[in-house]
Amino acid sequence: MNLNATLIAQLVVFLVFVLFTMKFVWPPITKALDERAQKITEGLAAADKAKTDLALAEKRVGEELRKARESASDLRGTAEKQAAQIVDEARAQAASIVAAAREAAEAEAETVVQRAKEELRAQVAALAVSGAERILRREINAQVHAELLSNLKQELN
User: Fold this and answer.
1) Alpha carbon distances (Å) from 74 to 63, 66, 82, 107
2) What pLDDT digit, counting tens, does each position of 63-97 carry?
3) How many distinct structural domains can be found in the chain?
4) pTM value?
């Protein structure tokens, strides 16, 4: 065999191999590489989108927390106002109860005083009758009677 013929045969086999590889082997490999590059690109795009979505979600969470704090502050303020109002109403109610009890006690005291006066008048009347009986039993003397009545007047005052 000749070296030139071998070289030409190897060149032909190599060209057939290159054509076969370019026609049948290379397209699936480039297709797989392109698909892999596309998946990587999509994955990076999804990661960027997820990153922006996360930033937006964190911003929304911060806004919701701020709103919740404001709402809680408003509720606390309203509750404090209601508590103050309830305390004021309770104080007013307690003051009215105390005033009613005081009025009732004063009325009872007035009733007791009136009863005592009535009893005193009854006792004075009994004393007057008793004094009159004594006067009439002892003697009938105008001067002694006048003195006794004036003494009785002084006792009554």
Assistant:
1) 16, 12, 12, 49
2) 999 999 999 999 999 999 999 999 999 999 999 99
3) 1
4) 0.42
